[in-house]
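Summary of Year 1 activities. Much of the first year was spent building the evaluation harness for sequence design. The harness presents a backbone, in tokenized form, and records the residue chosen at every position. We chose the following record to illustrate the format because it has been used consistently in internal testing since the harness was completed.
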């Protein structure tokens, strides 16, 4: 059995220039994930369900666990000393860390501390997504430019899924590896080495309640998914959890497509490019899948704001390409 810590140290040899900072950063994220996992597991017993009564910059009512998870990840990244700033879904502005040791803090991190938090009160899987960049500014406190980098510049990204088991899945651009938390020893252990996602699948995931507001290309693609055709195993199965991490994790393992397109209430899409779309796009591409906004590659999109929104078509390559055909023809 190989723990996340052992695996990270072994893989450090992949980065000859690295002096262990990235490894320590990943380790810190793993530690925060275990603390968040512990609280999620007993949230109903410890008054951690429900809302705090604040509205975040997204215009969403913050959950107690949104705030708790945010604090835990920021605190772990701060005490670790490798990270100069954090861009989080729950903070309007970037959070500067390690101002006194900023020369040693070579990385900037974007996080969605708790993804799918509307599911937390009903005991449905939630997640965390994170994205790691090498800072651009040379020294001093971190700068906005350190995090406003295209997805192609990520040095590592990953997610944690707090599901029927808790897993941490990450990439440093050399494939994707998944670790399952063994609660009896408190360690993430390598359970899914070198994950490759199926080239095609039979699951489509989208909030079809918004159908009337979807672009014509997505409406036509949904109808395509529902047509009977033995050769392509259609009609496909519809699965939508409402926690993007959980929907994508399932599709990563089984094959499938996830779409969150533009809608009337979200004219640029709902999901946030920096801490939701980019890390997941990096993982899915590294597993052999595809991630676009229906036209262009997610990882190539210019980043101008930390809370920028984007529409996303992500999953098994053949399925995403098919959806893009409908977008090109009808939208
Ligand atoms: P978050 O909980 O971090 O704000 O993210 C919510 C996102 C994503 O997880 C999920 O897939 C999507 O919102 C669900 O949106 P709808 O409820 O509009 O389907
Ligand atoms: Mn939210
Ligand atoms: Mn989210
Ligand atoms: Mn969130």
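For this record, the design step produced the sequence shown next.
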């Amino acid at each position: 059995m190989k723990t996340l810590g052992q695996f990270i140290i072994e893989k450090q040899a992949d980065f000859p220039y690295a002096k262990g900072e990235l490894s320590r950063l990943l380790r810190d994220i793993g530690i925060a994930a275990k603390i968040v996992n512990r609280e999620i597991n007993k949230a109903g017993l410890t008054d951690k369900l429900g809302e705090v009564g604040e509205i975040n910059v997204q215009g969403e009512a913050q959950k107690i666990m949104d705030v708790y998870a945010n604090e835990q990840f920021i605190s772990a990244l701060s005490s670790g000393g490798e990270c100069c700033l954090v861009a989080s879904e729950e903070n309007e502005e970037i959070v500067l860390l390690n101002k006194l040791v900023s020369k040693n803090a070579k990385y900037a991190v974007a996080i969605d501390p708790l993804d799918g938090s509307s599911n937390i009160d009903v005991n449905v899987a939630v997640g965390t997504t994170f994205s790691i960049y090498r800072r651009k500014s040379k020294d001093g406190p971190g700068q906005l430019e350190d995090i406003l980098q295209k997805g192609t510049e990520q040095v590592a990204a990953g997610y944690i899924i707090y599901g029927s088991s808790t897993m941490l899945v990450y990439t440093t651009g050399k494939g994707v590896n998944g670790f399952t938390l063994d609660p009896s020893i408190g360690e993430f252990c390598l359970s899914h080495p070198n994950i490759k996602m199926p080239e095609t699948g039979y699951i489509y995931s989208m909030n079809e309640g918004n159908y009337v507001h979807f672009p014509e290309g997505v409406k036509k693609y949904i109808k395509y998914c529902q047509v009977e055709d033995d050769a392509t195993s259609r009609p496909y199965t519809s699965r939508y959890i409402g926690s993007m991490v959980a929907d994508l994790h399932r599709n990563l393992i089984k094959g499938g497509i996830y779409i969150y397109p533009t809608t009337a209430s979200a004219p640029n899409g709902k999901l946030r490019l920096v801490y939701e779309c980019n890390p997941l796009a990096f993982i899915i591409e590294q597993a052999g899948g595809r991630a676009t906004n229906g036209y262009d590659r997610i990882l190539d999109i210019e980043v101008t704001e930390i809370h920028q929104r984007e529409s996303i078509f992500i999953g098994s390559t053949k399925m995403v390409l098919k959806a893009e055909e409908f977008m090109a023809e009808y939208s």
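The radius of gyration is 19 Å. Quantitative recovery figures across the full test set are reported in Table 2.
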